[in-house]
């Protein structure tokens, strides 16, 4: 076996070890936010393309000049509003003409992306701040393009508020919890399609399109809620209550979805024709630029055929316009990177049809005009089209799978190049008109830098350099992250990173903690900045290492989709190979290697320990999936099809199949109110361990969801995991 190591070793760390005195505490990385990067919050480009706004201190919206970097004006200041009904806001949205603001306040989370809130509207012409609705909390409030109305969801129904007349109209009336949802996604759409809003205004403000979810046939899932603390559910002090919601597990029934268009003038609704097949997904609604038609994305249950239907908003009649097919599954990127260009003559798609994800240009009739990007790399985001200069802007992993850069290409292909210059992971936000862009970039050696550039990439100024954080880092002796790659016994080259103890001595042998996530199209080995628990562990004498296995992102479709129909197989094979490689290094104690992970990473911890046997002396699985029959339809079936179609793929790659093979000590952790990966996974798996005679440690966190946080919870969890590793790796 050949091992090739590339070390991006930085001999000058975050601080000079000769002078640094402080040690990182667990509180620093899990409670205090000592090493948290500053960002530019609430940034919005204004219509003129010459200015942008930012949210400052939760109470002011300030306008800046792109060209000069100077503060131009305060667009809105809550402290100047007489008898203001609110004291702060967490987000804002301009109306299209920028005369009104929609302010989001008093947010209460529902699931990962969804929340209810109280919204307020600021009218800069009349200088009035008014409550959007006094009839109850709202979701997803959104201005109509003409700024005259706001659509929102309340208690599963869709409403429209007229700002001119102050009247509130109800669009749907059949919404009911755990039965019918209008305009907001159900649980599985929200989680797996990143589908936050299931309605869309037409560009001319005449129509409101929305999705209706009928989840009456979806099976219920119930979680027991105890009294707990922070927050305390006092009503559950003696008798815990049950929280029940609709959750479609793999192979089970989904919501039946339908698409509708509401005509604001006639106050009538028509249903769009989605065809005769009812077992489908509708993951996006998008209007054509001229508002003449509604584009409805219809995805089959197997998720390998995506049709774009164009609907007449007056009649609901549809016609097939475009189809994307894949032998395995259509990538999620297609959903958001299917974009109608402003001139309405073209649209762009991001497709994997030639091994890598690339941009393709089509005309309005649905015929391919040209492939815009090409090469052995993945396009990871499409930023838009500058119609004046006829330039397309995008993000790609062109130089390395571990980095992201910002690029451009002209319509005729004669002009193309890179706009970002700093190494690391870059993400751009372009101004209206594409004269400027703001780039957010970090690397292992540099915390986040937010910089302003013109459209040639020329640096105009630095908006945030995290100078205070850099100064603070000099007070600490922080170990540095090094990248490496190695070749497995199957000839697969894998990327990884490693953090060694500050006082690293090549003559010593160190225990190793392997961290990973390993899920489809994910990446943990990225050139971006962090100081976290892994640096703390390295300070405490551990070598910490991470390897991205097969199935992870930015290395083309074949590498990404090799796990199809057998989630867990190749990823765990690669983690076992990574442990063997690490154990072969002269400074590693091969008898003291642990692996840990959260969610998919927890699933991978269990499988790797079963396959690796004595290679892993210990492991930690937090909120793990233990059999994919327990997980949701959209995610699981995308990669595995249904349990009926692929029983061996489900069973043979489940940790439930071989629990007795675990020889290392296992700590398994779960939140009792995890709505995503249910605690059922841990309960069923630990029963297998019990019956197999395998000893283990276990922690259940009361009323905590998949993220396991609240009050002292996160610090408690990381202290428990740290103590476990120190005890087991001796």
Automatic annotation (TrEMBL):
Biological process (GO), any one: proteolysis
> For this UniProt entry, which segments traverse the membrane?
none
From the Swiss-Prot or TrEMBL record, what is one GO molecular function term? dipeptidyl-peptidase activity
Q: Which residues form the Dipeptidylpeptidase IV N-terminal domain?
A: 95-447
Thylakoid in keyword set:
no
Per UniProt, residues of the Peptidase S9 prolyl oligopeptidase catalytic domain are: 529-730
Matching InterPro entries: AB_hydrolase_fold, Pept_S9_AS, Peptidase_S9_cat, Peptidase_S9B_N, Serine_Prot_S9B/DPPIV
Please provide the record's keywords in A-Z order: Glycoprotein, Hydrolase, Protease
The keyword Hydrolase appears for this protein: yes
Protein name (record):
S9 family peptidase
The species this protein was found in:
Gaoshiqia sediminis
